[in-house]
Each structure stands twice: as C-alpha cells, then as structure tokens.
Amino acid sequence: MTNRSLFNTSGASVRTCFSPLIITVTFLVLAAPAFAVEELIVIGHKSPDTDTVISAITYANLKNMMGVKEAFPAVSGDLDNETKFVLGYFKVPYPEKITDCQHRCGKVILVDHNDMAQTVDNLNMENVVEVVDHHRVGGFTNGKAIFFLIEPAGATGGIIANLYEQNSIPISREMAGLMVSAILSDTVLLKSPTSSPRDAAAVEKLAKIAGVDPVKFGAELIRVKTDIAFKSAMGILMGDFKEFNFSGTKSGVGQVEVADLNVLTLKRAAILEEMKKVKDSMNLDMVVMMLTNVMKESSDLLFVGNATAAKSFEKAFGGKIVNNSIYREKLLSRKLQVIPLLEAAFKK
Length: 348
Ligand SMILES: [Mn+2]
Fold this sequence. Notes:
By secondary structure, this protein is of the alpha/beta class. The protein has 13 helices and 11 strands.
C-alpha cells in the first residue's frame, strides 16, 4: 500500500465520527507519512574523479543551504586516491555509494555528466530533475522542462561555486576547499585548454576562503593524483574511464595523468592487454587510453580496436598508429582535444 492510499482511506473514516479538532490532529498524524519527502540524490559519473565527487557534495550542500533538505550526495563507484586525499584534508565524509538505480533513485540531480553511457546503472532519465555540467550534451532526453546548466568551464566545481554566489549562499571553509580542489584537479592546475580566466579567478577566491596556498596545495594534489606506482594496469585503465558512442561505434576512452611517462613504460604492455579484455567484456568496438604527461602537456594515445575503427582513429589524430599508439604534443584534455576529434572522424 502506498502512503497516499493509506492516507485516503484513514482520512475518510475519521471524518465521519470525530470533532473538527480531533479530525485535524488525526489528519496530521495519519497524513505525516504521505508528506514524507522523497530523497533527492545528487550524483556524478561512473569511475568518479575528484570533480565529479566534489560536485555532488557541494551541490547537495548548496541545495541543503537553500532549504532543500532531502538532497544528499552519492557516488557511483569507488573513490580514487586524489579524492580521498581531498576529503581527508578538509575533513568531509565520503558520500554514499549508489551503483544501481533499479530499486531507488526517485529524484536525481546529475552533476559533471549528462551522458547516459556514463551515468549510474538503471537510471530512468525521466527521474532526472536537474543537470549541472561542463561536458558536451550527450543525447540527453527528458519529457519535461528541467534546470539544465551546461557551461564550458574548467570544472563543474567552478560552476557550482558561481551558483553559491548567485544564490547569495555563503561558502564554508570546507566547501571552498573542495571546490578549489575540483578546479585545480580538472584543469591540471589551470594548464588544460579547458581552463579560463574565470577558473583562475575562482581558484584565487576559493583558496582564500579555504585557507590554502593554491600553488603548494595544487602541487600536493598533482603528486597524489600522479602517484600510480602501486596501481595495477587495470586500476590505471579504469581509474578514469568513460564510455561514448561515436555514430554507432561503442567506445571507451580512459586517461591517466602522470608527471613522467617513463613511470608507465613497464606497465604499457599490461595496460594494452587490459584494454583488449575491457573491450571484449564491455562489448565495445574501440578502447582508447590517454597516457598524459601533465608536465610536458603531451599524451600517448593507446588504441585497441578493429581495422575500421583504427582508420577513423588515425584520421582523428592525423597520424599512423605505431606500436599501438599515436603520440601528440600539446594534448591534455579528453573533453576538448580528443572526444570532438573522434566524434568528427567517426561521423558517417
Ligand atoms: Mn569534471
């Protein structure tokens, strides 16, 4: 029996035999479950990175501050070391993990993604009530008008910082610390081409509130993020892995950021092996893995896929696949420098 039907039957029976005062009291008591507020989940993409987790936490906090008490943050996968470091540093608890929406997720706010291929399993897009993101619109459809905010910002965390300001909600030291971390992480210390002067200004402002030196703190963040010595090839591949559909070519594009590509030399062959396994197990046509040197701002793009996909991949990056990859200078951003090229090259 639903809350609503419980309320209706009980309401009808009391109305016939009690005084107005008792009716009112009984009505309120019986009606209480009917008004129990549905949970509102704020959640980011699969293979959660720092920006996606922090966006969920800070946007849920903003909603709470604005009186939407039912909003709470969730993550759709395990936290990476950088995220754990940031949450530990600012003493913010880990969000609840929700990996499947089969039996819950009444109302959902998507942050830092809007692509169904990247969202929590079994999510009904009709349950999405808001989107706050900085990625391309990835085939999102919804039967009603919703708050849908996409800005070409360096990080979703920066967009959310602006939303605090627009709504005149004060930013606490903790939330400022999280948002400055999100921007520094997603823009690779403001070096990525996705980063704008607005991001730099937000970093300065938020760092002040958080009481951190953005240069020193950013260096520490990069050290934690790029420390992959202890990680398995599979852990490296899936750490930041996103699925895409390029004109029918089902693809996975992962990225690992390191301070020196040499640390990956020994693991390169193993990563390629795992890419083949992931391609088969996830039923993909192509898997691309960006081995990105954040110091030199260059990437080695590993490729696994059939001959047709290989042709389009070569077309996208204007080169030949040598030793399973194409190497490119001045390439840092999957969102801006890889996905649009693949999308164009695979267009039929
Ligand atoms: Mn992001």
